UniProtKB/TrEMBL annotation:
One annotated GO molecular function: phosphatidylcholine lysophospholipase activity
Protein name: SGNH family esterase protein
Matching PROSITE patterns: PROKAR_LIPOPROTEIN
Source organism superkingdom: Bacteria
CDD domains listed in its UniProt record: SGNH_hydrolase
Spans traversing the lipid bilayer: none
Amino acid sequence: MICLRLWRAAPTERRLASGLVLLLACLVMVLMTGKSDAENLPPLKIVAFGTSLTARGGWQPGLQTRLAACLQRSVKVESVAKSGETSTWALTQLDRVVAEQPDIILIELYANDATLHRFVSLAQSRRNIADILDQLHQRLPRARIILMAMNPFSGLRGLIRPFVGSYISAHQAEALKRGLEFIDYRPDWERLTPDDLAAAIPDGAHPRPEVASKIIVPQLTRHIAGRDCGE
């Protein structure tokens, strides 16, 4: 608008020449302003909330780097996660998540609920995740909450989780009931050959970090950014 007013104020015989100069000046102004605005944005704060698939995941640095490049904005990813814990433990950690004041919360809390020896029933797990989602939404109403289904289990770690799919479905249903987001990485893992999958998840539960990053980071970046950010 400023450029248009300046152009209209110029004498008619000088408008063509002055218009070209003003066009270039305004273009430079827009580019400089855009850069300044991007630089002045606070970091996008993400909290990954979960089990060992987060605590030992190793995919967070890749997400931070790739998403920052995609959004042209600083991104900081923190974790509130502990190996071997369940959604019952997660209910005691909500203050830690809220204290981070995240813009986005990534959640995976079904994996240990589904183990036979931790005695978290499917109904209890569903009540727990519902309570977690409600509390987080109430205390962080502007935060995006994204539930995630991670990698498949195999071997002994698969045998002790015979109904893990039901736990994932229960958590997904509670998310969708509240209009929250859900990402399922399992189809991408299942595209690997059996040999590659075994090499990627040698203990049957915890993927090698470099493979986890290759599977998770591109899809999660696209989902958060709302567009394909390229390689």
